[in-house]
Amino acid sequence: MLDKFVDEIFSRIVGYNSKANNDAIPHSDNFAKEIQSLLGIDQPEIERIIRILKDSHKIFSFEIIKEDPENEIKRIEGYVETDLQTIRKLKNYFQKLLMDEYEKQFNKRMLVHQIVKDMYARPSFYKNTLLGQVGNKAIMLEEYEGLIERNFNEFTDSWKSKKLTELMAMTENKLLRDPLGKKTGPAQANKGAASKQRAVDSEQYQNYAADKSKQSLDKVLQIYGVEFFFRIHLRKYEFESLRDIIESGIIDRRADLMKLKEMIQRMKSNTDRDPKILEHTEQIYRLERIISRQMLYSH
What is the pLDDT of residue 228? Predict the structure, then answer.
């Protein structure tokens, strides 16, 4: 039954993406209500299926509206099929829409890259506005186009089908084996522990950990270098920490940002040896997005 739900939800996302209007990217809130009504499955099950589709590279999921608890605004994501032609078609549509909406609001025609640069410079001004939503779609679609072009082998039909089959088998085995829904068994835990031990148990890491607690970040980077710093955080799956550091501008050299991008790509290519990486797909995409954003201003 799970495979039928996966196929149905994927087909509906593809159906939305085929439209040539503002509704071409389904929003997670309305989409979930539609699926609940259509298939009779609850929100956790929908989220699990979306996760399977993301981890098998069948779809991309990205933030459209940022969570704002003070104003009772929940995070809303958009879904798009990982087909290069679909991505390009939607990118062209939403980039034009972004220019049109900007001109309508400010009575001034600006090119996409100029609007995007202004969005990065004034994020609070655009946050959760209609223009900001359109901008998020235009930005992410262009980034996903580049991601597919750079890692085309991970987005072929054969790769996606194989990964989907593996994930479905893992899910079915987990349901049969673990009715409590625990996320990791002993074998997975051992793999995660082994991946951490590669750098974490080294003598250099022990020194790094001691210095990190008593030295400023700038000083730690001077002592150990950015590459070692990146490697430690990546191996501990601390993608959000890296995201905060990059966004703060503490590490802003283009060469360093390029190095981090390369290390992330190598890490993503090792999911067969370290399947825990798949649990952090969304965090990795957010980190990659921040890196691309910061590179606009790097030197």
Answer: 84
> 166-176 burial string, b = 16+ CB within 10 Å, else e?
bbeeebeebee
Nearby residues of 269 by Cβ (< 8 Å), 6 or more positions away: none
The DSSP output letter for 237 is T
Strand ranges, E, within 93-165:
none
Tens of pLDDT, residue by residue over 273-282, are 788 888 888 8
Helix crossing, 112-121 with 84-106: angle to 10°?
Answer: 70
Q: Cβ(197)–Cβ(232) under 8 Å?
A: no
Phi, psi at residue 23, to the nearest 5°?
-95, 15
| pLDDT score at 207 | 62
Q: What CA–CA distance (Å, rounded) separates 214 from 158?
A: 50
**How are beta strands 59-65 and 76-81 bridged, if at all?**
antiparallel
Say whether 124 sits in a helix, a strand or coil: helix
Q: What angle do CA 134, 78, 94 make, to 5 degrees?
A: 30
Ranges of the chain with pLDDT below 50: 174-201
Cα–Cα distance, 243 to 294 (Å, whole number): 11
Q: Residues with Cβ < 8 Å from 268, sequence gap 6 or more?
A: 151, 154, 277, 284
3-state secondary structure 43-92: HHHHHHHHHHHHHCCCEEEEEEECCEHHHCECCEEEEEECCHHHHHHHHH
pLDDT of residue 195: 44
Evaluate whether 58 touches 10 at the Cβ level (below 8 Å).
yes
